Inverse folding.
């Protein structure tokens, strides 16, 4: 296998750390560090040795043209190895197509303002380079490696894709760390190498070590996809070749920060593991590059079409594309390790769309490909749970209940509840089932989840009616805890908690989960337990609404009571 000819190789590093103030996308300062640090690593002769003038960095591009113009120039003039890297917010359209965020992206105009992965793919397909390497550090980046998605992988000989996450998961930017989780681990590996490993590391070696490192940290596991043999070419110099094996785990630089409120931290606690928060954008929201100039970055680099580069590209390594495969982690770079079983101290369950079958806060919708309402029993039964089990979703708004407890003898602090969103593929509603009546006010501890804004707000304990705050009338009243989330919100077998999530969204269909962060007693580890996925349907004014009806209390049938716009509305 020929190593890369660095005189005929290049890299284009793209990143968005600053986003327009009129969007809900938080800035990502660690992305700016990613670009600086990765450029330094790739041009370091001890790591890779790329010529500095062949490494272009594009920071906070305002639009897709600002990226593609530079990328196309490098792609057309690189003969040996081209590395393209992106870091920033990633998102998936409703058809599971991947988009990459730019500073000027308008969430309402996704196709016109974000960088479409398909366009990036087309540029790389036309590139004459012997090796084309694409590295994506963004949410849902695995869509580029997933043959089942509507985001096609490169599919040409001599290509390799390394994605930070599976197609349905978030990429993470831990608070207080210099780099994002994935790029930080990649940089640590490039800078420190693999003790007793080969003199040069292939992309498959890199992937195997990354997979193990991120898996050990309970972080999203990377994905890779390759055509041809690019993944086994000796690519990077192993700076630790021949050195003694380190007993320290491979971790990215930076110290994770304690996310608990300062006044609530226990003096004896210093976290050794943190589950980092991440920005998740999906389902048609746009990603924006803040308006910024890229003059400085482009002036420092030029495509490898100087006198050192040949006028024509070398021949491809094979005459026809090799079968595209999802490569497995390398076993030569890192040995497997035993993993502890997931923690089971938190005893929790979620229930939706009903808690008892009588609460009327959730209407359920069924997509067009789902069963007809006539296939459900109408004889006085509440069919919502059956409908959800057969593919239904809540319509516009719904209640989700979380019951929280712990195993005997243990106390668990509920630190936070955060929603995470996945690409939604379910269809618009074909019909809606509206429950009749309800249980009355329950006096629950309520959190409001605005799906359109991706925002969860603690609303405290709602006002109860009909004696709902009296434990003798409503046993759940004693579970309505009023402590703020954090170390003070402790649950145990004898002191349980009940939380109601009021979720609502009008602008799109959503698929989401609820992630509960918790710590056990005075332990230093923060665990996360996820509930879901849950599905919601957006508004469609002409969807028929049905309710069970009986004139004699014995013979029941579903009767169309109207259409959605008569009962439901979005402001």
């Amino acid at each position: 296998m020929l190593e890369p000819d660095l005189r005929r190789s290049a890299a284009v590093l793209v990143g968005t750390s600053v986003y327009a103030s009129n969007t809900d996308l938080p800035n990502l300062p660690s992305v700016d560090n990613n670009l600086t640090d990765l450029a330094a690593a790739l041009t370091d002769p001890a790591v890779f040795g790329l010529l500095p003038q062949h490494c272009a960095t594009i920071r906070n591009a305002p639009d897709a043209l600002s990226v593609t113009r530079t990328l196309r120039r490098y792609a057309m003039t690189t003969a040996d190895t081209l590395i393209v890297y992106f870091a920033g917010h990633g998102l998936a359209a409703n058809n599971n197509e991947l988009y990459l965020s730019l500073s000027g992206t308008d969430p309402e105009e996704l196709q016109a303002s974000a960088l479409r992965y398909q366009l990036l793919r087309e540029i790389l397909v036309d590139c004459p380079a012997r090796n084309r390497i694409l590295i994506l550090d963004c949410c849902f980046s695995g869509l580029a490696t997933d043959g089942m998605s509507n985001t096609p992988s490169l599919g040409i000989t001599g290509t390799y894709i390394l994605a930070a996450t599976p197609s349905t998961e978030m990429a993470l930017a831990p608070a207080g760390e210099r780099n994002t989780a994935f790029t930080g681990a990649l940089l640590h590996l490039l800078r420190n190498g693999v003790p007793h490993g080969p003199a040069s590391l292939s992309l498959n070696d890199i992937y195997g070590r990354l997979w193990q490192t991120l898996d050990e940290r309970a972080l999203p596991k990377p994905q890779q996809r390759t055509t041809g043999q690019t993944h086994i070419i000796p690519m990077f110099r192993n700076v630790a070749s021949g050195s003694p094996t380190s007993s320290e785990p491979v971790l990215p630089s930076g110290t994770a920060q304690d996310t608990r409120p300062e006044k609530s931290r226990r003096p004896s606690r210093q976290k050794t593991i943190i589950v980092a928060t991440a920005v998740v954008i999906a389902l048609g929201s746009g990603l924006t590059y803040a308006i910024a100039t890229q003059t400085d970055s482009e002036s420092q680099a030029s495509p490898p079409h100087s006198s050192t580069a040949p006028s024509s590209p070398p021949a491809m390594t094979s005459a026809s594309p090799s079968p595209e495969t999802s490569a497995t982690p390398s076993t030569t770079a890192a040995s497997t390790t035993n993993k502890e079983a997931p923690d089971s101290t938190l005893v929790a369950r979620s229930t939706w769309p009903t808690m008892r079958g009588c609460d009327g806060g959730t209407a359920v919708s069924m997509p067009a490909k789902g069963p007809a309402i006539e296939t459900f029993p109408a004889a006085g039964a509440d069919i919502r749970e059956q409908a959800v089990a057969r593919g239904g979703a809540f319509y516009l708004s719904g209640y989700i209940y979380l019951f929280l407890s712990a195993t005997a003898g243990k106390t668990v602090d509920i630190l936070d509840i955060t929603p995470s969103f996945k690409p939604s593929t379910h269809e618009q509603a074909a019909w809606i089932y509206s429950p009749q009546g309800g249980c009355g006010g329950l006096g629950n501890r309520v959190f409001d989840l605005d799906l359109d804004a991706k925002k969860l707000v603690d609303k405290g304990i709602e006002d109860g009616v009909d004696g709902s705050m009296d434990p003798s009338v409503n046993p759940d009243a004693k579970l309505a805890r009023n402590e703020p989330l954090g170390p003070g919100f402790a649950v145990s077998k004898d002191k349980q908690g009940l939380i109601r999530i009021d979720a609502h969204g009008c602008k799109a269909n959503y698929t989401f989960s609820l992630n509960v962060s918790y710590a056990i007693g005075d332990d230093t580890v923060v665990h996360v337990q996820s509930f879901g996925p849950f599905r919601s349907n957006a508004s469609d004014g002409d969807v028929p609404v049905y309710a069970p009806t009986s004139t004699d209390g014995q013979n029941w049938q579903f009767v169309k009571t109207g259409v959605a716009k008569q009962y439901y509305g979005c402001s």
